[in-house]
């Protein structure tokens, strides 16, 4: 008897988003499975950041269906996404540079005991989170402004994991990093995948995508323009889809698995 494959953690079916008269996303499909890294690719203005905002509840979709583990859900606010188990790390990281690592992780979510901040509990939780992500644990009480760009990215990702999410959205996590720092972040994402998380990685760096991602989804002018198995697709095929040299808009009603 054949086993039924598990549904994706997160699936988008025919999602549309409009800002005024401009339709930014048009019938976009996407799937993120547990233990997989999906790269989201596209030129500037392709709709990548808008899609992340739709998933994270910052800019809700106007049409289409969003499914969580096979059931339709509504994501209207960031709280809705967080309650489902979706966390987002934006490109600007949104860290307070004057605060230390512990202060940044628990800003707005401080642990209190008898009405006072429980610094020991927050520090212990910070050590646990960073220890599971990387060997290079930064000085916990050093202000974030003193950390390297790679360490700041690690702090931002650790903060997103406080609620034990199952899907993590990463917006250009290596864009401003050098080679060694990029390697650290990619290793960190690999660790998250090994722990069974689904990761959506927005990147312009095809080297990072080929090294890390399992699947790639291309957006062009707000539409799907290709789905690729990164292990078998050539870099040239993916670039052609991004630039529009190959128009590969999936027909409505085709199965997502077949397009992969």
TrEMBL record:
CDD domains, per this entry? Answer: ABC_Carb_Monos_I (cd03216)
- One Pfam annotation reads ABC_tran
Question: Is Nucleotide-binding there in the keyword field?
Answer: yes
Q: Does the keyword ATP-binding apply?
A: yes
Mind listing the UniProt keywords for this protein, alphabetically?
Answer: ATP-binding, Nucleotide-binding
ABC transporter domain: residues covered: 10-246
In terms of superkingdom, the source organism counts as Bacteria
GO molecular function list: ATP binding
Q: Which PROSITE patterns does this chain map to?
A: ABC_TRANSPORTER_2
User: By what name is this protein known?
Assistant: ATP-binding cassette domain-containing protein
């Amino acid at each position: 008897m054949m086993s039924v494959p598990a549904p994706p953690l997160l699936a988008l079916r025919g999602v549309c988003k409009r800002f005024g008269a401009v339709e930014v996303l048009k019938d976009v499909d996407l799937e993120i499975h547990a233990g997989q890294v999906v790269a989201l690719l596209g030129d500037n203005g392709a709709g990548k950041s808008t899609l992340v905002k739709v998933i994270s509840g910052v800019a809700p979709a106007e049409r289409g269906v969003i499914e969580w583990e096979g059931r339709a859900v509504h994501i209207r606010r960031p709280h809705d996404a967080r309650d489902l188990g979706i966390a987002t790390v934006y490109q600007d990281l949104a860290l307070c540079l004057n605060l230390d690592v512990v202060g940044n992780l628990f800003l707005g979510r401080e642990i209190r005991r008898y009405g006072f901040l429980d610094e020991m509990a927050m520090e212990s939780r910070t050590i646990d989170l960073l220890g599971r992500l990387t060997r290079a644990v930064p000085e916990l009480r050093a202000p974030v402004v003193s950390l390297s760009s790679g360490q700041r990215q690690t702090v931002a990702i650790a903060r997103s994991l406080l609620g034990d999410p199952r899907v993590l959205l990463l917006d250009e996590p290596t864009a401003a990093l050098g080679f060694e720092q990029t390697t650290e972040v990619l290793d960190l994402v690999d660790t998250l995948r090994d722990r069974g998380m689904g990761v959506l990685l927005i990147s312009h760096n095809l080297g990072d995508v080929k090294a890390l991602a399992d699947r790639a989804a291309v957006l062009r002018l707000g539409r799907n323009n290709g789905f690729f198995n990164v292990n078998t697709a050539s870099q040239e095929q993916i670039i052609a889809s991004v630039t529009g040299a190959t128009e590969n808009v999936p027909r409505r009603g085709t199965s997502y698995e077949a397009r992969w």
